[in-house]
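Hi all, posting the design record for the shared folder.

TITLE: backbone redesign
STEP: 1 of 1
STRUCTURE INPUT:
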């Protein structure tokens, strides 16, 4: 807002003339002076009301309306005061100066209290008619107290002002000082110009009150000065309220808008996201062909490494060379927002900057739009990395699957094809042994035995390998199975070694029914129980088999009192060809547990072991409970 002087030269001249007229009238006749001075003030007070009332629809806040109503009643009270003034007596009143003084005091209380509370009505709804009714009621009540001689005496003929009147003036001064501070506290709500006028008015009212506390006779000088000040203070309120309010009815609104604009400016400037404001450039067919830069914020400058002063007023095609060749049609799509008003959110690669951004585009008014954007390159990169990674994992898995199949096929062929020649070697070596036992030298016998042993071992290895290879492929023949009967078959198969070892097999509770491939279940239990018997150095090995239900799964346990497993080896025993002992100590191919793992996994379960070296091991496997 332009700085303007509080009062124009015309205002000052007018004021001066009024004051000269008043002064001259005071020299001529005090009663005339008083009547004129009061009438000037009363006129101004009524004008305040009339203007505030008639502009109440366009005034943004209720402060002026409230003051306008208050001044209407202050005007009435001042009118009553003037009319009953000593010597004039237009209205019926006591024949002394007490009544006008009482009315004066009431008017001043009304004025000061109204000024004090007016700032409370800035944004509070007031009901205009109710406010008028309330003022009328209070004023009427007070007038009644004056005429009914209830109101305290203010002036005694010959003695002057009563203590009540004097103290009241001080109280009124105090209220006005309060009003002054209330106004200061609300200074941001006014434009500086209006604020100064209102402040000056309150200060003058305070001085006018102080002047009145000094006078003794109603005609003396401080009374004249007091009236001067009072008139000027009314005039300033009039200036602030009526003239300024009427000439700038939206000043408050604009001030609030300016304040909120300031707030948004700050937000715009301090936003972490980049922000640019554009006007769309249209061709003859109203088709968006470019965007004009109107404003950008600090984050925009930082994020794009551009300077505001270099780009404002330029088109985006000049600033971002090649933008029109982007995969995404920035010009067309953002232009559409400016034309249709439909907001757009999109994540795009901005080739000009070689980065990814998320854009939000809004149009506050036709042909204008704001773009708010955020750099999401890191996130996009992470997403891309993840996608690449998943793709790589997928292809690795496929490759693994393929090589697994190849391996199975290979193992199948090898073990199958090797078995034949091996059988021949075995048979002939056995024949050799039988025929020539003792006929060759001793060494030859030992060598022949080695070969017989070796071929037998190789035979087992090939069988195991073949069985293992077969586990991977083909469909499972799943059927409802009683694990108890599976166990019986296994024990039968193992009866020789059980007897030989004099082992104790315990199966306390009945085993559950499951849905599984019978052959594989036999293989699984047989491997576990055979190991339990094999890796056991006790005179009487003990193996117990049990099952428990856990989380919709059966967990079967094969527990032995054997040699146990060192904790550091526990992870590798389920891998193919992993054995913990030299062949001389315990026979085996290292395929048994790998087979078990494969069988359990193909049935949707897991296998694990808990073991204490020297005390025994518990092998567990889980298998889903039938639905
Ligand atoms: P193999 O029995 O042919 O050696 P496995 O795959 O069945 O092969 O077992 C791998 C290794 O796990 C065995 O060599 C042995 O060291 C260890 N192991 C398996 N079962 C037991 C058990 N019940 N007690 C102690 N060690 C065991």
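Okay, here is what came back for every position:
SEQUENCE:
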């Amino acid at each position: 807002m332009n700085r303007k002087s509080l009062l124009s030269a015309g205002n000052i001249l007018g004021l001066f003339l009024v004051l000269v007229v008043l002064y001259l009238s005071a020299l001529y006749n005090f009663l005339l002076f008083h009547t004129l001075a009061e009438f000037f003030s009363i006129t101004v007070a009524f004008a305040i009301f009339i203007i505030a009332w008639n502009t109440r629809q366009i005034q943004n806040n209720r402060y002026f309306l409230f003051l306008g109503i208050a001044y209407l009643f202050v005007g009435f009270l001042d009118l009553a005061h003037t009319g009953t003034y000593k010597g004039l007596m237009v209205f019926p009143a006591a024949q002394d100066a007490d009544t006008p003084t009482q009315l004066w005091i009431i008017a001043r209380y009304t004025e000061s209290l109204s000024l004090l509370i007016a700032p409370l009505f800035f944004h509070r709804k007031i009901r205009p008619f109710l406010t008028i009714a309330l003022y009328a009621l209070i004023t009427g009540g007070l007038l009644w107290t004056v005429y009914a001689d209830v109101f305290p005496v203010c002036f005694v003929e010959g003695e002057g002002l009563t203590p009540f009147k004097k103290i009241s003036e001080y109280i009124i001064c105090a209220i006005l000082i309060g009003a002054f501070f209330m106004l200061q506290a609300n200074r941001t709500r006014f434009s500086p110009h209006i604020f100064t006028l209102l402040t000056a008015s309150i200060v003058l009212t305070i001085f006018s009150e102080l002047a009145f506390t000094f006078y003794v006779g109603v005609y003396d000088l401080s009374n004249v000065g007091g009236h001067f000040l009072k008139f000027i203070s009314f005039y300033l309120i009039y200036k602030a309220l009526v003239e300024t309010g009427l000439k700038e009815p939206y000043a408050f609104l604009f001030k609030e808008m300016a304040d909120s604009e300031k707030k948004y400016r700050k937000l715009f400037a301090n936003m972490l996201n980049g922000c640019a404001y554009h006007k769309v450039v249209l061709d003859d067919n109203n088709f968006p062909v470019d965007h004009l830069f109107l404003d950008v914020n600090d984050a925009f400058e930082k994020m794009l490494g551009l300077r505001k002063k270099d780009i404002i007023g330029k088109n985006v095609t000049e600033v971002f060379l090649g933008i029109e060749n982007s995969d995404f049609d920035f010009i067309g799509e953002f232009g559409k927002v400016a034309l249709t008003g439909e907001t757009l959110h999109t994540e795009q690669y901005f080739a000009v900057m070689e980065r990814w951004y998320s854009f939000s585009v809004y149009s506050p008014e036709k042909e204008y739009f704001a773009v708010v954007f955020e750099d999401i390159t890191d996130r996009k990169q992470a997403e891309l990395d993840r996608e690449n990674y998943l793709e790589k994992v997928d292809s690795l898995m496929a490759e693994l699957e393929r090589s697994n199949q190849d391996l199975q096929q290979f193992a199948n062929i090898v073990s199958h094809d090797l078995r034949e020649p091996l059988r021949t070697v075995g048979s002939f070596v056995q024949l050799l042994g039988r025929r020539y036992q003792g006929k060759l030298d001793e060494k030859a016998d030992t060598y022949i035995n080695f070969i017989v042993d070796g071929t037998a071992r190789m035979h087992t290895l090939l069988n195991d390998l073949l069985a293992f290879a077969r586990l991977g492929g083909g469909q499972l023949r799943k059927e409802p199975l009683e694990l108890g009967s599976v166990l019986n078959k296994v024990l039968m198969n193992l009866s020789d070694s059980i007897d030989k070892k004099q082992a104790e097999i315990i199966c306390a509770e009945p085993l559950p029914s499951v849905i599984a491939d019978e052959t594989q279940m036999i293989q699984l239990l047989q491997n576990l129980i055979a190991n339990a018997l094999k890796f056991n150095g006790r005179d009487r090995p003990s193996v117990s088999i049990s099952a428990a239900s856990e989380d919709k799964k059966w967990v079967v346990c094969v527990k032995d009192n054997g040699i146990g497993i060192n904790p550091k080896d526990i992870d590798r025993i389920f891998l193919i060809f992993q054995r913990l002992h030299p062949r001389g100590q315990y026979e085996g191919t290292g395929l048994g547990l790998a087979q078990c793992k494969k069988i359990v996994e193909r049935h949707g379960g897991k296998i694990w072991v808990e073991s204490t070296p020297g005390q025994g091991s518990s092998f567990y496997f889980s298998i889903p409970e039938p639905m």
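COMMENT: Residues 527, 531-532, 535, 560, 562-565, 573, 578-581, 588-594, 617 surround adenosine-5'-diphosphate (CB under 6 Å).
Let me know if anyone wants the other runs.
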